[in-house]
Each structure stands twice: as structure tokens, then as C-alpha cells.
């Protein structure tokens, strides 16, 4: 229970912002039903200053009646406000109490006003109070909503001496809960998430549900950003345990962006932008963590936006090129090359694919870029020895676009390339949605004679049903399992098992990321069909392939 001095003194009675601005008989209680704050009207009516251990049941003993107590418990469980009519045992007067969810507990508003305890003949005042609460609070979680958040932030900013922390909170991996378990489970997770956020808060901290799985906290503490970072750590820790839905454990984490006023902004727009940028940095850094805004984050974001704008004209300005990395059959026989797209920005220089490809996918540009890579790679491969293949990666954005098979067929026809010389690499992630259509697309490509490779095997979901339902030509083992192959027995066991699995299904195996002779020798002994990596050949422009082939005979003694 809060200490006596801090709970019900005249100065402390307005600790809750709602209580401070309403001339109503209003009171707030923690989860143990101890009185935490009250309006002056309630203190005057009930003389609560004389009650050291004031509780909901001291002020309103009528709520202990089974029906009334059930209504209170319903508010706690579901967050939906309830009007409860009670009768004073001594005076026989009737009152209507609006019971609603509040921060870290509940609130009670006497909707008949404070002047008299008259018998209420109409529910109009109760309905007005209920509508007011519903307009400013989220029905599902009981937290103040975006409207209340904006009003509260507007009333605080700008601030001159006091430092204020704004925390933007996004739930990680929440969408799969809705997608796999249904919206009812999603709602249950949101309610439990709100409770975990409430449980981490202290005095001077208020949480809000803004929309969907987005929450916010306004914190008024003196030591910033240390106090905000301490709270953020507590919130992240609160989400470390799974949520249990109908006996199923689901893990939903939290990413948090922190901005401090007035340093990072002293109006709503500036402060929210800073918190959003910090949240973006937290998610990019791996999620499940908190980041405090810094100017360097803004610079990085501005650079990223500059790259995104430049990406729209990069193709027409011929800033893309393709490099080709050899595919080798042991002991050392070149069988083809993988086409790898490169972006050479005129000001920034070479932009890594892991930076610009997600941008292109998000902005709907990957189809155009991917088509150019496919056509250019097929055109180049047509000039190689007739037994060489060319491998081209298909992004999920390209794979899910209608007309894919027609575009691929057109590309090989235009280049004059045999269909069996084209190998398309898809990752397991592209098969997670629209499973039937995906398999139909793969089967159509297979009928055309095009080879299909399952890329990065073992790093995503690795559903063996895909291997059963579609006869891939090749499985590519991700470099993650190759990098410590010479010393790690677990990696050896996994790679050995993948090779056996693929061969048992009549598929070839390619190992990526081969960087040492020891890795190459081990893979050769275990029967790996093809190798790819820096040890065997770096990615090279098309005009360097001829010289590479002339030098490659020196490697044949591997």
C-alpha cells in the first residue's frame, strides 16, 4: 500500500491527471483495491483523510454484495466500464457508480454528482460519464487511448525545466498470433500485454494503447534518460515470458523507442518523430530491445530515405550490374555461375544487396529489378559453354506476382538459352503463404524444364512437406552451417544429414560459403555435389569470366 503521506494529502490527491481536473466524486484504486488518489469532492464527502488504510470496500461497502462485486470483477477482467446501482445501508439512498479500468487498477465515479446523494431517477448522467470514459479509453485493455494520449501530451508540452520521456512500444511477432490462432487469441495477448505494461509502471508514468499492437508511455521522472531506459529494460523483461492462450505458449516481445523532451523535441510532432526513429532503430537492431533517440539515428534515416529515392531511378540510370560467382563440382569442375546483382550509387558507392533489396521489395520495385537481372543473366549465360548453368535468385515479391512463369519463359526465349540451363533459387520464406499457388508455380516452371533450387536451407522454417510435395532439383546449405564445419561436430552432423536427405529424395546438394580448403575437402568426402564460396572463386563481372576459366585448371588438383 502507498505510504500515508503520499496517498491522500491535499497535494497528493491530484496525482492522477483525471482526478486533478474533474469536480466529481472520483477515486482510484490499485490492484489490491487500496485507495491511491481521489478528487477533492470525494475527500470532502467521505472524509477519507482520516482513513489510513482506505480501500474500495471502506468507501463503498455496498460493492461487496455478490452482484455488485461480480460487476467490479468483470471490469477488471474485460476492461469494459459498468454502471452499478447501490443502496446506502444507513440512509437507504440510491447511488449509481461508474466503475472503469484505470492505470494499475480501477476508478469509481459517482455519476449523481457530489452535492447530494439524491435518488437518481434517470440514467442520463451515468450514460454521459460512460460515453466520456469510452471516448478516452481503449475498450479492450482499459488503457487511455490515442485521443487521451494526444490531449495529455498537448497539455504537458512544451516543457521548460522538467524533462519528459515519451516511449513508443511495438509488439514483436504479434501478427503471427492473429494469423495462426485467430483474432480472439490476438485480443487476449493485447489484454495481457497491457497488464504487463501496467505492472512495470511507477508513479509519474502513464501507459496508452494507440492502435493495434502499438502502445506508448509518458514518463515524468527527473533523471532522464536514465529513468526511461530503466523502465524500458523492465518492460522488455516483462515480455520475456510467453503468453499462454488456451494452453498454447506464444512468445511476443516488445521493441521500444525513447525520446526525451525538450532535448529531442518540445512539441508533439517533434517528440513523436524522435521516438518513432528510435523505435525503428530498435527494430532494425534485432527487435526485443530499446533505443534512445540520438542525432546519428536521424542521419542514418535521412541517408536511408535518400537511397530509397535514388533507387527509383537507379535502373533507368544503369546503376545496376551483375557479378557472377562460380558453382563448382568437386574436385574442381566449373558447372555454372550464380548471378548476383550489385548497385553502384554515383555518390555513395557500392550499396550491399542486403540494404537495397528490402527497400526495393517494400517499395514495389523488386519486380522490375528482378526482371532486368533475369534477362541480363540469361543473355550473358547464352555466351558461355553450353553445359554451364546460370542461377538467379527470386525474391518473395517476384515469386508472388502474377505472370511469373510467362515472364521467365519469355526471358529465356529472348536470350536463346535452353530452359535446363536456368536455375531459379527460392528461399523457404516464399513458400509460407498461398501454398497451393506456390506449388502450382513451381510445377509449371518444372514442366518448362527450368531447374529449381531451395536456397538457404535450414535457416527459415525448413518444412519437410515442401521437399515431399515438390521435387526440387537442388538444396543449398546455408553458409551458417559451413563456417565452422571443420571444428563443430553439430554442424558436421547437420550438413551430413542434409546431404543424405537430399540424395535420398533424388536431389543435388550445393554448399554455400566455402572459404577454406579444409571445408572443401570435408564436403567432397561427404558427397556434396557442388560447392560455392570465396575459396573457389569470388564474384566477378561478366568480362572477367574468361580469364577465370583459364586459371581454374590450376585448382583441379584440390
UniProtKB/TrEMBL annotation:
Source organism of the structure: Ensifer adhaerens (Sinorhizobium morelense)
InterPro entries named among the record's database cross-references: Biofilm_reg_signaling, EAL_dom, EAL_sf, GGDEF_dom, Nucleotide_cyclase, Rev_trsase/Diguanyl_cyclase
Domain of life: Bacteria
Keywords, sorted A to Z: Plasmid
Protein name listed in UniProt: EAL domain-containing protein
Occurrences of domain GGDEF (ranges): 162-295
Domain EAL: 304-553
Amino acid at each position: 500500500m502507498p505510504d500515508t503521506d503520499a496517498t491522500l494529502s491535499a497535494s497528493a490527491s491530484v496525482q492522477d491527471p483525471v482526478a486533478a481536473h474533474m469536480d466529481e466524486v472520483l477515486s482510484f484504486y490499485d490492484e489490491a483495491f487500496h485507495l491511491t488518489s481521489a478528487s477533492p469532492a470525494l475527500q470532502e464527502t467521505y472524509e477519507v483523510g482520516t482513513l489510513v488504510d482506505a480501500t474500495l470496500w471502506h468507501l463503498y461497502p455496498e460493492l461487496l454484495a455478490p452482484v455488485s462485486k461480480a460487476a467490479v470483477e468483470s471490469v477488471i477482467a474485460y476492461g469494459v466500464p459498468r454502471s452499478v446501482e447501490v443502496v446506502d445501508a444507513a440512509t437507504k439512498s440510491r447511488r449509481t457508480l461508474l466503475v472503469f479500468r484505470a492505470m494499475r487498477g480501477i476508478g469509481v465515479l459517482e455519476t449523481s454528482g457530489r452535492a447530494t446523494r439524491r435518488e437518481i431517477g434517470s440514467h442520463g448522467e451515468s450514460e454521459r460519464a460512460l460515453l466520456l470514459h469510452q471516448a478516452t479509453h481503449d475498450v479492450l485493455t482499459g488503457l487511455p487511448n490515442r485521443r487521451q494520449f494526444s490531449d495529455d501530451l498537448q497539455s504537458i508540452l512544451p516543457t521548460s525545466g522538467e524533462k519528459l520521456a515519451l516511449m513508443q512500444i511495438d509488439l514483436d511477432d504479434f501478427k503471427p498470433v492473429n494469423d495462426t490462432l485467430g483474432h480472439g487469441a490476438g485480443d487476449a495477448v493485447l489484454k495481457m500485454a497491457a497488464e504487463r505494461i501496467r505492472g512495470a509502471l511507477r508513479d509519474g508514468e502513464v501507459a496508452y494503447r494507440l492502435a493495434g499492437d502499438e502502445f506508448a508511455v509518458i514518463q515524468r521522472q527527473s533523471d532522464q534518460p536514465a529513468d526511461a531506459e530503466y523502465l524500458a529494460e523492465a518492460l522488455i523483461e516483462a515480455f520475456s515470458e510467453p503468453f499462454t492462450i488456451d494452453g498454447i505458449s506464444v512468445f511476443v516481445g516488445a521493441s521500444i523507442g525513447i525520446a526525451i523532451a525538450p532535448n529531442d523535441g518540445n512539441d508533439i510532432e517533434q517528440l513523436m518523430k524522435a521516438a518513432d526513429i528510435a523505435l525503428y532503430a530498435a527494430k532494425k537492431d534485432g527487435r526485443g530491445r530499446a533505443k534512445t533517440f540520438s542525432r546519428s539515428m536521424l542521419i542514418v534515416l535521412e541517408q536511408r530515405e535518400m537511397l530509397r529515392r535514388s533507387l527509383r531511378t537507379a535502373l533507368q540510370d544503369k546503376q545496376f550490374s551483375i557479378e557472377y560467382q562460380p558453382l563448382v563440382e568437386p574436385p574442381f569442375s566449373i558447372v555454372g555461375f550464380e548471378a548476383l546483382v550489385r548497385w553502384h550509387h554515383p555518390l555513395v558507392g557500392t550499396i550491399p544487396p542486403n540494404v537495397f533489396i528490402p527497400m526495393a521489395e517494400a517499395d514495389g520495385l523488386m519486380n522490375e529489378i528482378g526482371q532486368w537481372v533475369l534477362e541480363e543473366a540469361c543473355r550473358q549465360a547464352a555466351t558461355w559453354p553450353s553445359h554451364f548453368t546460370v542461377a538467379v535468385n527470386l525474391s518473395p515479391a517476384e515469386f508472388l506476382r502474377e505472370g511469373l512463369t510467362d515472364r521467365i519463359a519469355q526471358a529465356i526465349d529472348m536470350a536463346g538459352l535452353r530452359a535446363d540451363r536456368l536455375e531459379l533459387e527460392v528461399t523457404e520464406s516464399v513458400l509460407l503463404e498461398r501454398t497451393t499457388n506456390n506449388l502450382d508455380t513451381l510445377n509449371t516452371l518444372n514442366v518448362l524444364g527450368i531447374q529449381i533450387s531451395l536456397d538457404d536451407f535450414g535457416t527459415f522454417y525448413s518444412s519437410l512437406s515442401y521437399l515431399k510435395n515438390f521435387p526440387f532439383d537442388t538444396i543449398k546449405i546455408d553458409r551458417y552451417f559451413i563456417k565452422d564445419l571443420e571444428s563443430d561436430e553439430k554442424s558436421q552432423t547437420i550438413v551430413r544429414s542434409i546431404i543424405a536427405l537430399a540424395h535420398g529424395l533424388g536431389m543435388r546438394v550445393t554448399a554455400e560459403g566455402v572459404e577454406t580448403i579444409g571445408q572443401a575437402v570435408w564436403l567432397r568426402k561427404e558427397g556434396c555435389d557442388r560447392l560455392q564460396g570465396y575459396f573457389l572463386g569470388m564474384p566477378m563481372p561478366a568480362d572477367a569470366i574468361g580469364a577465370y576459366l583459364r586459371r581454374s585448371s590450376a585448382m583441379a588438383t584440390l
